[in-house]
Amino acid sequence: MHDPKDRPLSRRPEGPSGSDEEALLSSATPPRTLLVALDGSPPSLAAAGYALALGVVLGSRLHAVYVDPDGEGDPEPLPEDEGRLHEIPLEGHAVQGIRGLYLLARAAAQKGTQVRLWVARGNIVDGILRTATHVDANAIFMGNTGRSGLGRLLLGSVAEEVLRRSHLPVTVVRGTSGIS
């Protein structure tokens, strides 16, 4: 007589070998090109740190973008030398975003890797997605302030819209705007 306790802990699913589910699991590859969307806020910097750590471990290429909502345009590379930043016209909110890009570049250099910096202009979600296409990204990383209620209703959520519209995996690092 067969004792039920003797059965294997896992069973092979019924059906033919090489099912669609098995193919999905076995075809996954690590992302080779990561894009970080930065606005200089603490949550976006946390997302940048997470992407940097993952990129170093995986040996992935890193790109970071700040999207200036004023104007319209395709992603443009920033100068590698932060000292040449005066060549780019920046105002108000853009200064914080660009500062975040260069903070990430310095952190990457300390870890022995590089990050390519970009500025896009126009709708923030569109700018992130255009840059992802431009750099041939395999994954997007971004922060979220965790707004709720009226603030979220009035301002919307860039992270949610990127999640809805992107065909790429998106990692959202939550945080609050009150982090100092």
Automatic annotation (TrEMBL):
Residues 1-28 are annotated as: Disordered. Gene3D superfamilies: HUPs (3.40.50.620). It comes from the Bacteria. Pfam families: Usp (PF00582). Residues 1-14 have a biased composition (Basic and acidic residues). Residues 32-174 form the UspA domain. PANTHER family: STRESS RESPONSE PROTEIN NHAX, UNIVERSAL STRESS PROTEIN HP_0031. Belongs to the universal stress protein A family. This is Nucleotide-binding universal stress UspA family protein. It comes from Brockia lithotrophica.
